[in-house]
Amino acid sequence: MQALTNIAIPGAEAFYRGKVRDLYDLGDKMVMVTSDRLSAFDVIFNEGIPGRGEILTHISSHWFSLLPVKNHILETSVEKMPAPFCHYPDLLSGRTVLVKKCRRVDFECIVRGYLMGSAFAEYQKTGSVSGIAFQSGLKQGSKLPQPVFTPSTKADSGHDINITYEEMQKNIGADLSGKLKETSLRIFQIASEKLLEKGIILADTKFEFGLLNNEIILIDEALTPDSSRYWKKEEYDEAMKSGSAIPSMDKQIVRDYLNTLDWDKNPPPPPIPGNIIEKTLNKYKEIEKVILCITMEK
Ligand SMILES: Nc1ncnc2c1ncn2[C@@H]1O[C@H](COP(=O)(O)OP(=O)(O)OP(=O)(O)O)[C@@H](O)[C@H]1O
Ligand SMILES: [Mg+2]
User: Fold this and answer.
1) By CB count within 10 A, which of 41, 124, 166, 276 is most buried?
2) Going by C-beta distance under 8 Å and a sequence separation of 6 or more, which residues neighbour residue 95?
3) What is the Å distance from ligand 2's center to 298 Cα?
């Protein structure tokens, strides 16, 4: 199978091509096509991962259907979408959704249950994460006493920047910030509990929200291995005991590989070897299988 990195739909012109998704404007709606493009450190690689767009779409759509929060999905079946999209089911099925077009809140709503990545780096330097102080002695991968909301800006170009909750409040107001924080923490909690029942730890995740008629809508993607860090509980426990790196079920494989290179994380991107692509795809498939089995039944 070949990776679909460049998707052309005859008779339709994308108004935005993001790192992963192509957007088509239909007035108050949008068609969002998730390609097989792979990005890391905000750089798009020349190689895609075959079928990745479908996996990400399946995972998001499943979480959207489970989580008790309004989301942007209107239709997931390509055959029921307007022309010309409905004419290309072979190309688009499984990776395409029709959504409500929202006014995006230009902040990433990140929730962290564990200390990893940029949060760990910040903790090491300052003893706090996003302005929230934590006890000393926490290690890379330590579980936080409670999940924390650590927003970041959505930069139009370049890397997103971690900010404090107070900075977010200053920018979009205390009321909206409060609702976004509460909603993010609530759905993180629900997803974490459901995943743990399947032996998976949700270490952290990023949500995006939009506004439509004064309502908060969960948009973009939800709890995918692109927007989240997933760990197998067993492997996590073992790694914390032995002090080794925690094996990830997400893009970390690609990030780890890139960190072995002498590359400054700016374009042009280095080539990604076939075995890294295959390993990442297998992890994506594994986590997809687990997530699609989750239901909201007790
Ligand atoms: N329902 C929606 N209404 C408005 N914008 C949306 C909606 N759903 C997703 N988006 C936006 O569409 C884009 C999806 O593309 P993609 O995920 O590839 O972007 P990206 O390269 O990650 O860019 P960004 O840095 O803006 O997230 C994102 O900018 C996302 O914020
Ligand atoms: Mg995105």
Assistant:
1) 276
2) 4, 33, 34, 35, 53, 54, 56, 57
3) 32
Whether 289 maps to a domain, the answer reads no
- The number of beta carbons lying within 10 Å of the beta carbon of residue 77 is 13
What mean pLDDT is predicted for residues 259-269?
Answer: 96
**Least distant ligand from the CA of 226:** 2
Any domain includes 41 = yes
Best mutation site among 21, 32, 159, 209 for ligand 1, i.e. most ligand atoms within 8 A of its Cβ? 21
Residue 1: predicted pLDDT: 82
CA distance 29 to 184: 24
CATH of residue 246: 3.30.470.20
| Position 284 in a domain | no
Q: Return the pLDDT at 161.
A: 87
| Domain membership of residue 52 as a residue range | 16-101
CATH number of the CATH domain containing 53: 3.30.200.20
Share the mean pLDDT of the chain. 96
